[in-house]
Amino acid sequence: MRASIRQVAQAAGVSPMTVSNVLRGRTDIVVEQTRERVLQAARDLNYVPVRTSTQNRHVRTNAIGVVFLHSHRPDGPIGYPTFLGMYDRARELDHDLTIFLRAEPDWVKPGTEAQFLDRRCDGFIFVGSNRPEITTALTENKVPSVECYSVAPAPGAARVVADNAGGIRQAVMHLANHGHKRIAHIAGPQWNLEAQERLKGFRAAMQEQFGPDCWDCVIHAETWGQIQRFHNANGAVDDVTLPIVEAALATGATAFVCANDLLALALWQFAEDRGLRIPRDLSIIGVDNILQADYQGLTSIDIPFEEIGRAAVDAVLALEKGDSTGEASRILPVELIPRSSVTVPSER
């Protein structure tokens, strides 16, 4: 049962009016010690304030909360350009961004919902898949929420994603146009929805190019960590990544579509360490188009991270205006960037 404002007042030893003043940010009439006592009581009781329709229409801060979940660091190859896009778009629209970091996988604790609703943000962007209980609390209180890079967002949230399946299809077509038929896909973990979406795109493209009896070779990473590491301290392929690139070379494929650029670069190095030449003996395509891909000459699927960030800000404002989650959601197109890592197959 939801705690009431009277219960918070009783726990804090103040009147309900004082609780109301604290929750409305009236620091001019409530001393700091009392304010802290009220907020602590609200957290202890998991109190979630219910916004009225009048408040939702008229109380605006022009601030959007951006929550970086544990799988996407704000200084990482995905989080940083995504934030740059959000920053540019928010500045154009005269909005502020408030950044929240949730480094632990199990970041939802008792009272987390109330803490989000107490942030004085007009809406929230979650970089990664949000927890449904948070989205439910935001939706019930008419606070817009948007999820970036979430294939299946929680009910009530809009999503802004790249066309994962379409990007993998472009990669398969590019390799097929160079004469490859034994094309393997090194995929993300089987439980991951984004990896599942890319795998569907891979298999659909293979059947389109080569028919229902096409070569079907997929190597799954056990964890994202297995495909997010590249070098160890000695410059060799990291021990965590090593098993998956070893398994890949054992397949006999002439070309690979990798889950991301870091894995593609690890496969490239591992193959060359064993006397293979890229692209003469093996063609490789990655995903993300990070700076290292450009430097190495790796063909890659360019994910428009900055555009995703910009679109996420627009989605929050669209939900504020009353658009449905479907209307506010976006799937952004991706583009294959051809470089020197793909050529016609050779017999190995």
Structural features, described:
The protein is an alpha/beta fold and about 350 residues long. Among the domains are: about 1-45, 434 Repressor (Amino-terminal Domain), CATH 1.10.260; about 165-305, Rossmann fold (3-Layer(aba) Sandwich). About 40% of the residues lie in helices and about 15% in strands. The protein has a six-stranded parallel β-sheet. Strands 7-6-8-9-10-12 form a six-stranded mixed β-sheet, with helices on both faces. β8, α11 and β9 (about 285-290) form a beta-alpha-beta unit. α5 (about 80-90) packs across α13, α8 packs parallel to α9 and α10 packs across α11. Residues about 50-60 have low confidence and may be disordered. GO terms for molecular function: DNA-binding transcription factor activity; transcription cis-regulatory region binding. This is LacI family transcriptional regulator. Keywords: DNA-binding, Repressor, Transcription, Transcription regulation.
Question: What layout of secondary structure does this protein have?
Answer:
Blueprint: H1 5-12, H2 16-23, H3 32-44, H4 53-58, E1 63-68, H5 79-92, E2 96-101, H6 112-117, E3 123-127, H7 132-140, E4 145-148, E5 158-162, H8 164-177, E6 183-187, H9 193-210, E7 217-220, H10 242-249, E8 255-258, H11 261-273, E9 283-288, H12 291-296, E10 299-302, H13 305-321, H14 325-328, E11 330-332, E12 335-337
Parallel strand pairs: 1-2, 1-3, 3-4, 4-5, 5-11, 6-7, 6-8, 8-9, 9-10
Antiparallel strand pairs: 10-12
Keywords: DNA-binding, Repressor, Transcription, Transcription regulation
InterPro entries: HTH_LacI, LacI/GalR-like_sensor, Lambda_DNA-bd_dom_sf, Peripla_BP_I
Pfam family, one: LacI
